[in-house]
């Protein structure tokens, strides 16, 4: 790791100012950035911690659903979202291990948009709104492919607002080594229809499986998608799973999520 | 009644107090005055010619003290292979020099070609990056696939070796024609092609070394992560650096796991010594985890075709194998013995097989060196045999339990000379099989299968009956077979004046529990409290010349040496007692810590005798030296042959292909057991590693020789929730017939017996689940592979 300066502003405005510095980079839970720095693959000159800003912390019900501060660790989401959005709480409780869950944050995960991360599936399946220091971004517009988002230079997430479905579930199939999602599916049933989002599977990052959404909106049962197939075009193929295998997992896990939804 | 102390007691591990409270002292924990830090500069390409290394780019960088390249070591010796193997045609193996630092060519990703020494680790790291950037390497095509390497004479890992073959070994070559004839005559021949997957050892503690040089005396000291400090010293002194052995002290302090990978001498050890001498300061190096992945000796990596000739009833008539064994870019110290004498000699398994022939071609590739890893050759043999026996049962519609009973050697057949050169001294393979069947509740399997099916899971059961050879010996035999060292071990038992005891052993404990078990034996034999016995190991300045710990040899070989030394102590004690008690030596008996005159109540305690030996006021000085300290070297008459039967149950998720190992039963024969708790722990650890190999661990190089599984993000290690609670038994004991403790060794058993049991269970689950086209899946049986196999 190379040397760097570290600042921890207490307000969003101060964070914006700090991030204007040459070579500055926001730091949330550091679960991706710090290992990358240790491997000397990243060398920011200034790290601006976002974890000291009170309004970016915590879980509460508010307009439009469940409001989660971007710097809220997974462990807090797992505990405090449980009463409001159990599927989301379960997702948070299944990320990494206790050390990761006590450091890693929802904002960090959504901003990084790792193709194997869990949260993007929940954000997209819930039709959540990503709130930044400058604007509100709909989930559909936010995710733009692996490690790519609508965030602009200097922009950072302050909050994520999740509409709460009637029922939902997240089913993750672990990559055997890292235990990230080899593929995982979030299913959310709302009054006006079902949304299905898959992470870990596509070369284009998290995506909605619209055929399944249509079938499940008509009939919310695992059987409703039995006749569908997922194309393996554009699926990730690596050591741990071929494209065809991942396409299969999208379908299998969607069925299991429907069965598990509550 | 279980015993509380002594032999056979489950004494808690005394070393765990320091390990579990963070008070162990490992190499990297040592901080020496004036120390400098070494960082290795490693090749980022698999194969290339070093065109230039511009050391001037770093020499003036902050803190940089020295730079070493291959040029600095071109006049010292290479790190040798410990066994000379001859090819079938009688020609000796090809043995390219393995330099301290790569010179001329780099031969695998991670091959160190330079080292930077600096005041701080960070400065050395910075400079190493700059030096890497200032190096020009002309990249050559990588040689990764073994069979392609052997077929292509144009592309060479070592320029002087045209077909990349180290040797082409036949065992036993004279058997070949008879085996071919038996195979031809056999009513059925079952053929299986399989891969024994390459594994990265992943000791919890990475390799680390500290070199020191004392100019006043010309002495060197190396503190290093070694399983056998004397062997490391021998290799450095006699082969690599030419330092007189009496001028180098090698210390292996607490070592956090080895699994074989720390048996060997590595170039970094020579580097820190040379650097310490040049700088006149201690020089330290500790591997980062990535370096461990790239440069520790890996394990396994065989591609085998095995054929089994049999009758319709499943009587095995002949076994013939052809194996390609990857040795990687250089010959590591045991790399030539592992695929040959630790593999081919076990190819009869625990069965009565009239004809066996083994052919092994070892191949150089542009990958990390491959060497012995927990089990070392024996897991490869066991996997091949137990998979093909299972396939035979399926193809001929036979019961796998019954077929094994038919073929297992019976107790009356020992000692049994196998067709591949070993003499099994004793065993009762039926007993362990019966015990495993009972403990695994084989009779209740169908009900469990139905219950799994109700949950949507395919359940299968797999069996493996295995044997291994431990405590490799005797020296005169291994010498004939090509070993360049002896394989005895040694112990010095020093009784202190106050009656406490220090045992200096040639064995090295890096997790095994010697500090607990060895005192149990001493205490039992001398009738004293185990807490007054201390085990000293891991320092060439303190211990007699021993061969260290690997191959499940510590207790069988070094323990036997200790037992012999204790016998000498008792014999001398009797002489002293006879003098003090004014009796004839022949009338003195020793029991329960007392020397007594037979038939009288006259006695001296062990402590009184010890005191007299060191304060010899009333002592036969004319005929007996004072002091009470004895050394014994022990060279075993034979290997030991632990054996057992393992039964695994798995559940397979049809939708995802995920395999869960849900039950695992081990019935082992380890001979006499000194500490049941430690033995069970060894089995747990070994089975855990075996399940890791079978289900999770894959070491994958791409076509360009880059290691794709170079971190825990992609290399899957077994974790607690990947393994079930084990059922472990060692009650079916047939004590070893030729060592004084009757022990056989247990360290590798779990890793040897378990992989085929797991894979057999997976195939069983798929077959029972209707996927009858699936005959074999190579390890690891990952979700992706199992799903692909089901849907092929």
UniProtKB/TrEMBL annotation, chain A:
Listed InterPro entries: CO_DH_flav_C, CO_DH_flav_C_dom_sf, Diverse_Substr_Oxidored, FAD-bd_PCMH, FAD-bd_PCMH-like_sf, FAD-bd_PCMH_sub1, FAD-bd_PCMH_sub2, Mopterin_DH_FAD-bd
The organism's place on the tree of life at top rank: Bacteria
SMART domains: CO_deh_flav_C (SM01092)
Natural source organism: Pseudotabrizicola sediminis
Protein name: Carbon monoxide dehydrogenase
Keywords: FAD, Flavoprotein, Oxidoreductase
Domain annotation FAD-binding PCMH-type: ranges: 1-167
PANTHER family per record: XANTHINE DEHYDROGENASE SUBUNIT C-RELATED (PTHR42659)
SUPFAM superfamilies given in the database record: CO dehydrogenase flavoprotein C-terminal domain-like, FAD-binding/transporter-associated domain-like
Transmembrane segments: none
Keyword check for Flavoprotein: yes
TrEMBL record, chain B:
Domain of life per record: Bacteria
Pfam families in UniProt: Ald_Xan_dh_C (PF01315), MoCoBD_1 (PF02738), MoCoBD_2 (PF20256)
Chain ranges of the Aldehyde oxidase/xanthine dehydrogenase a/b hammerhead domain: 21-141
Keyword set, alphabetical order: Molybdenum, Oxidoreductase
UniProt xrefs under Gene3D superfamilies: Aldehyde oxidase/xanthine dehydrogenase, a/b hammerhead (3.90.1170.50), Aldehyde oxidase/xanthine dehydrogenase, molybdopterin binding domain (3.30.365.10)
PANTHER family reported in the protein's UniProt record: ALDEHYDE OXIDASE 1-RELATED, XANTHINE DEHYDROGENASE
Protein name, as recorded: Xanthine dehydrogenase family protein molybdopterin-binding subunit
Organism: Pseudotabrizicola sediminis
Upper taxonomic lineage: Bacteria, Pseudomonadati, Pseudomonadota, Alphaproteobacteria, Rhodobacterales
